[in-house]
Each structure stands twice: as C-alpha cells, then as structure tokens.
Amino acid sequence: MATYVTELQSPRSSRSITGDASFERVFLFENVGAADTDAVLIADSHIPRIGDYGLTATGARVMVESVDCESDADTPKVRRVVVRYARHRRDFTESAHVERPTLAPPVISVQATSSTSFASKDAETGEPFLNSVGVPFDPGTLPQVDVTKYRIAVTRNEQTIPLATAFEFKDTINSVSWQLFDYVFPARTVRFCGLAAETQYDNEITYYRCTYTFDIEPDGYDVRLLDQGWSIIDQSNGLEENNYLVRVKDSEGNPSSEPTLLNGVGLLLRTGLPPVFLPKPPDPAWKLYKAKDFAGLGLPRG
C-alpha cells in the first residue's frame, strides 16, 4: 500500500502564491504497488478534491480544477499527485469563463420529503409495541406517523461522464465518516442513489452537467430485527444435535395465527422479559448495503 510522504515545497507548489490565475501543489507518495491506482492515490485524505476552494497569498479565491498522477519510469514506486488550482469563476474575465465552464463551482441542494408510515416501536426507547399477550400488533392496527427523509444533490460541470465511478458506488453507503462541503456525515449514514448527467454546449464547448444524489439516514442503514416467528426448536428429546422445528400452538392446541416472540436462541420468550433483537450485541447489526469510502467520489470537502 502506498505511503503518503509530504507535499513538495517547490516553485510549482509553493504556499507563497503571487495571485496568478493558476498554480499547482504536488504531493509525494512512496512504496507504490500494483493496487495503488491513480484513483486510489487521488482519493487519499491528504489530496484536495476537484471543486475544493483555497486562497492565494493576496486573498484571491481559487478552486481545484484538476487532479492528476505523475510518475517516472526509473522510479516506479514513487508517484506524484499534482493538484492544479485556478481562479474562482467570479474572478475570471467573461472570455476566460466561457473557455472553462468546468471551473464553475459545484452547487449543492437539500430536499426534505415527508411520508406516512406505520409506527411499530417507541420513538424514544426503540422498544416494539406489543399487545397484552406479548406479540406485535397487526400492522393494520398500528398508528401512522409522518416520516421526514432528506436527499442531497451535488451538481457540477465535468469534462466527461464518470460512469465507471457511478457503477462502482451504485447502492453503497459510506464506510467511514465523509465530509461534503462543511458537514461531516458519520459512517454508514449516507447512501449513494445515483448519477444523472446531461450534455451541455456553450460556444462550441462540450461538457457535462453531472448531479450526484444521496439519501441521508442519521440513524444509519444497518438493522437489528425483532426475534419472532411461528416455529421454535423442539427440545423434547434432550439431544441438541437432533432438534427440529415445531409450530407454535395457541391455548387450544392450534397452530398460532400470529408470530410469537422468541428469546434469541430459538425458544419462546418468557413472559415479562424484554424483547430480543437480532443480531444480539456485541455482534454487529445486519448490513443492508455494501459500504465504500466516499472519498473516492472526489466531491468537494469545503
């Protein structure tokens, strides 16, 4: 795995920026292996993203317009990541802005939607609603509540449509905390919903307006489910290895018509004991989505 070393202090990456229209910063990696592709190095947390902002020594606002990897044939295990900045579009002349539409800053939008859902558990304790015999209520008898969901969209102009990235991150959640602009989302709380792209033509210049969409779930996308069912493990023979399932029966000896609470090991939950959710801690919750480091999307962090 590649090792980040330092940011090179050279004229091309000097922090003493004169306020020119563009400048570069160069970051050095060593011990680069076959698995350390350009995308892996560019996604490193030390590397600014396209669309990130900075300031020159004179206070002019600049923005990352490109991030590329460089290497020399005689030093294959050493790579440089070159980050090129240019003036924010509001500092460009009209002609310069027309020539470089991909320098337009990204636009973020947040949308809240409300829907109704059956409430099956206490909003504060998380305990499920149970009837007097200790089983969940029929869904049709549960009260309905309003549920608010948040969706975030990030739109920016790009030179190509990043389909490979969209396919790689399809239906994934963030594996680690992820910063988008000024907000840091905890791990496993953001789902990548997809990419939309549209061709743009501006004075014979072709580029693509790309929109990345995300759903936010502050409580996370992993789940623990109430242990309940219609069958239990039969232990009548006393031999655990030969146990088999038998249908739970009601007080009249008939198969139960509703799921019964179980105790986490396949038996009936004793009256008065709290419900069991599976998987039981400290085992991790079940995962509904694959997880990836969203730094690989290359979206602005500030």
Helix-strand layout with pairing:
Elements: E1 3-7, E2 22-30, H1 38-42, E3 53-55, E4 61-72, E5 75-87, H2 94-99, E6 107-118, E7 144-158, H3 163-168, E8 172-174, E9 178-180, E10 183-185, E11 190-202, E12 205-216, E13 225-226, E14 228-229, E15 231-234, E16 244-247, E17 260-261, E18 277-278, E19 290-292
Parallel strand pairs: 8-19
Antiparallel strand pairs: 1-2, 2-5, 3-4, 4-5, 6-7, 7-12, 9-10, 11-12, 13-18, 14-17, 15-16
Distance between the termini: 27 Å
Arithmetic mean pLDDT:
83
Number of strands: 19
Structural class: mainly beta
Secondary-structure element order, N to C: EEHEEEHEEHEEEEEEEEEEEE
**What's the story with the biggest beta sheet?**
5 strands, antiparallel
Q: Strand order within the widest sheet?
A: 1-2-5-4-3
Which spans of ≥5 residues are poorly predicted at pLDDT below 50? 11-20, 88-98
What would the keywords be for this entry?
302 residues, mainly beta, four-stranded antiparallel beta sheet, 19 strands, 40% strand
